[in-house]
Design brief:
By secondary structure, this protein is mainly alpha-helical. It is about 60% helix and about 5% strand. The protein folds into three domains: about 100 residues, Fumarase C, Chain B, domain 1; about 180 residues, Up-down Bundle (Fumarase C, Chain A, domain 2); about 80 residues, Fumarase/aspartase (C-terminal domain) (Ribonucleotide Reductase Protein R1, domain 1), CATH 1.10.40. α3 crosses α6, α3 crosses α8 and α9 packs across α21.
Length: about 450
C-alpha cells in the first residue's frame, strides 16, 4: 500500500472525504502554497521594477509582466513538483521557490540579468505570511462561506414553510410554552447570518519588513528609500491585504487567530442546529427522504437514520478542536522567531476542510427533510398544561392571590386534560369577558408573536 490514494490516505480529509474537499485543494494544499509563494515573489519583483528609486532594476514592460504573472496564474502540478524536487536537495521550501523562478528566468536573458532582485530584502517569512494570508482569504471566501450561505438559503425555505405552524416548545426537555417551528428555525438563521457577517468582516494583515521586522538590509542597500511606506504600499495595493508594520521576524497571526475563533463560533451554531434537527427528527416533526438503495441499519431495515446531521456534528467537533488549539498557540513565539508555527499553519487547511465537509453534510441533511405537520400539531394539542403560564399571568393582572402556587398545584407533574383546566378557569373570580377568553384558549393559539416574528423574518428574506 505504498501508493497514496483515497483508500490509503491516513487523513480522512484526503481519504474518505476526498470528493468533498477537492474544491479546497486549489487554496490550501502544498501545491497551492507553492503557487501563492510564487505569486508573492513575482509581484514583489514587478513592484520593485516600477520604483524609480531602484535604477539597477529596469522597469518591466507589459509583455514581461504578463509573462512573469503567467508563472503563477498557470501554475500546475509539474511546477509544484519541480519546486519540491529543488526543496529535496536544498532542504528549504521558500528558497526552492526562489530558485524555481530563477530557473525559468534563465530562458530569458534580459530577465536573467536582474534575477537577484527575486527575493530582494526578504526573509522567508515575508513570502510565507503573505502567501498564507492570500490562500486563507480565498479559502474561506470562495469555499467555506458560500457553502454556509447554502445552509442559510435552505433554512429560509423551511422557515417560510413552517412560520405559522404551532409547535410544543421544550425547555430542559420538558413541555414549555408553545412556539412555531418556523420561529425556532429563524433563531438559527439569524444567529448564523450575524456570525457570517463577523467572519466576513475579518481582514488579514501581512508584514514585509525583513529578518526581524526593521528593514535592516533594505536600509543598507538603499538608505534614501522610506522602506516602511514603500513596503506598506506593496502589501495594500499589490497584494490587497491589510498592513502590519510592527512585527518580529514573523507576522503575529492575530488576524488568523480571530478568523479561527469566529469560524469556530460559526461552527458551534451549526452544531447546535444539527443537534436540534436530530431531536426534531427523533420526535417525528420532520420526515427524511428515503433513498431506495440506502441502508439505515445493518440489522433493522426499517430505520432511516439522521446520519447527515450526525456526520456534520462529528466533523464540526474536529474542526473546532483544531481551530481552537491553533488559535491558542499561534500568537506565541519565542523572542523574534521560532518554528513551532510553521507546522501549525499547515494544518489550518485541515481545519477548514473539516468545516467544509460538515457544511456539505448539513446541506444534504436539510435537503432531505419534509415537515410532518400533523405530528407537530398533535403533540401540541395533548399538552394543555402549557397554558398554565398564561392563566397565572392573567390572574396576576387581576390580583388573584397566589396564582403561581395554585397553577403549580394543579399542573406540576400531572397529565392535565382540557376539561380539568377549563373547570379551574371557570372557578376563578375574573371578569366575564376575560374568563371567556381563557376558556376559548387552546395550546395552538398560545404562541405569542412567534408567527409574526417568523413571517417577518421570512418576508424580509424574499
Amino acid at each position: 500500500m505504498s501508493t497514496l490514494t483515497e483508500l490509503t490516505a491516513i487523513n480522512p480529509v484526503d481519504g474518505r472525504y476526498a470528493s468533498k474537499t477537492i474544491a479546497l485543494r486549489a487554496h490550501v494544499s502544498e501545491a497551492a502554497l507553492f503557487k501563492y509563494r510564487v505569486q508573492v515573489e513575482i509581484e514583489w519583483f514587478i513592484y520593485l521594477s516600477q520604483a524609480s528609486e531602484i535604477p539597477e532594476l529596469p522597469s518591466l514592460g507589459e509583455s514581461d509582466c504578463t509573462l512573469l504573472r503567467s508563472w503563477y496564474i498557470q501554475f500546475n502540478d509539474a511546477d509544484a513538483m519541480a519546486i519540491k524536487t529543488i526543496e529535496k536537495t536544498i532542504h528549504h521550501d521558500v528558497k526552492a521557490v526562489e530558485y524555481f523562478i530563477k530557473e525559468k528566468m534563465a530562458a530569458y536573458p534580459h530577465l536573467q540579468t536582474t534575477q537577484e532582485f527575486i527575493h530582494f530584502g526578504c526573509t522567508s517569512e515575508d513570502i510565507n505570511n503573505v502567501a498564507y494570508a492570500l490562500m486563507w482569504q480565498k479559502a474561506f471566501r470562495e469555499t467555506l462561506q458560500p457553502q454556509c450561505a447554502v445552509l442559510l438559503k435552505q433554512l429560509h425555505t423551511l422557515i417560510e414553510q413552517a412560520a405559522s405552524l404551532p409547535m410544543l416548545a421544550r425547555t430542559h426537555g420538558q413541555p414549555a410554552s408553545p412556539t412555531t417551528l418556523g420561529k425556532e428555525l429563524a433563531n438559527y438563521a439569524v444567529r448564523l447570518e450575524r456570525q457570517m457577517e463577523r467572519v466576513d468582516a475579518i481582514r488579514l494583515r501581512a508584514k514585509f519588513n525583513g529578518a526581524v521586522g526593521n528593514y535592516n538590509a533594505h536600509r543598507i542597500a538603499y538608505p534614501e528609500i522610506d522602506w516602511p511606506t514603500f513596503n506598506r504600499r506593496f502589501i495594500e495595493k499589490a497584494m490587497g491585504l491589510e498592513w502590519n508594520g510592527y512585527t518580529t521576524q514573523i507576522e503575529s497571526h492575530d488576524d488568523i487567530v480571530a478568523l479561527l475563533y469566529e469560524l469556530a463560533h460559526q461552527n458551534s451554531i451549526c452544531m447546535d442546529l444539527c443537534q436540534d434537527m436530530w431531536g426534531y427528527i427523533s420526535l417525528g416533526y420532520f420526515k427524511q427522504m428515503v433513498h431506495a438503495q440506502e441502508v439505515g441499519s445493518s440489522t433493522m431495515p426499517h430505520k432511516v437514520n439522521p446520519i447527515d446531521f450526525e456526520n456534520a456534528e462529528g466533523n464540526l467537533v474536529l474542526a473546532n478542536a483544531l481551530q481552537t488549539t491553533l488559535a491558542q498557540r499561534l500568537p506565541l513565539s519565542r523572542w523574534q522567531r521560532d518554528l513551532v508555527d510553521s507546522t501549525l499553519l499547515r494544518n489550518i487547511g485541515v481545519a477548514f476542510a473539516y468545516s467544509f465537509i460538515a457544511y456539505q453534510s448539513l446541506e444534504k441533511g436539510l435537503g432531505r427533510l419534509s415537515i410532518a405537520e400533523e405530528k407537530v400539531k398533535t403533540d401540541l394539542s395533548l399538552q394543555w398544561e402549557v397554558l398554565a403560564e398564561a392563566i397565572q399571568t392573567v390572574m396576576r393582572r387581576y390580583n388573584i392571590e397566589e396564582p403561581y402556587e395554585k397553577l403549580k398545584a394543579l399542573t406540576r407533574g400531572k397529565a392535565l386534560t382540557e376539561d380539568l383546566l377549563k373547570e379551574f378557569i371557570a372557578s376563578l373570580e375574573l371578569p366575564k369577558d376575560i374568563k371567556n377568553q381563557l376558556l376559548k384558549l387552546n395550546p395552538s393559539d398560545y404562541v405569542g408573536f412567534a408567527k409574526e416574528l417568523a413571517i417577518r423574518y421570512s418576508t424580509a428574506k424574499l
